[in-house]
Amino acid sequence: MKGRPGGAGSDMPDAMRPGSVIADYDRDSIHTLPLSVLPVATAALSRARLIKNHRLETRVELFRESGIGSGQIAIDEVPDFFVGDPDALQADLVLLRRIGQLPAFDPYTLRIGLRQAGVDLLSLDALRLSPAKRAELLPLMRNITRPLIVHLYGDGPVDLDDLDSLIRLIANPDTPKVRIRIRAMADQLGIGVDALPDMLEDYGDTYLALSYYRGYFQYAVPVLARIVEWMREVQRHSFLRDNAAAQRSFQEVEDVLTYVAGSVTRRFDGFDRHTEVNWSKVTVGTFGKVRDLISQHQQSLAQVLCGLTVKIYEWEQRFPNGGGSPDKRAEFVASDLRPGLDGLWAVERRSPRFDAGGSARV
Q: Model pTM?
């Protein structure tokens, strides 16, 4: 996966610019939410965003600019920075506190959290990934697209890479043989042929959510390995070898990052085993099982990957080329990397587990 997920390596757009639309960065991000999509009553507040910062705290971000950094305040500090009707500000505070409790701000977590909170978005489009992000995730969708192509067309070459194109083709099949197979699939599912594209689209959206989280994790894994090696350099080859507090801090952070990365890896391996679809025997229950399985893991995956992401982004910003003196590395580990990691460890420990056995087709 090339570039940062949700950002393609670029700086975050300025949330405070007048009349700003929802930027792709925010639309695709796991850790930012533009307040312009929420029904906030204070106009100036709608130009800010909610973020999860590198300490894994929810903050209202007033601005972010290259060379200046990020201007953040706690939610309860909003009345100190925004002028408006007191009743409206109080209503906004209640809303922000509720949304701020969500474990992440990706579209899938927001759909669930906003629905549970009874919040109507000002723009439902805000909960859709950008076209660029959907295209970026195509390679991670091939676990369902390639087997479906083979089922419909056999092993011959077919120039279709994405589920959207497949769904359009299923709605308008191009050969009698494909029409027969589509009819057989619909009969197997117990639905009409006209209902098949919608069912596949719903299944594709569910799998797209899994691919979204997998994309963040694939970006994180090599960076986490670099962070661990970056810590080890000064842990083993500097005067910090004799600093018991620094050694303990380094080791605790490494242990948590190693455990969490390994555990999430096993989860995605489990998904690969348990979401493999035999399209010739597919049933309505197939899609229900996959949806339920992904739903069981969604919140914990979102929280853990959001936490890892903001830690990684902060390290990349502060140490873009690695390096840093032993003192600076020790300070960063203690004050920026370590806070909140125990919480991520606990979330991952409580997350659903897959059976250790072999493949389980649905």
A: 0.89
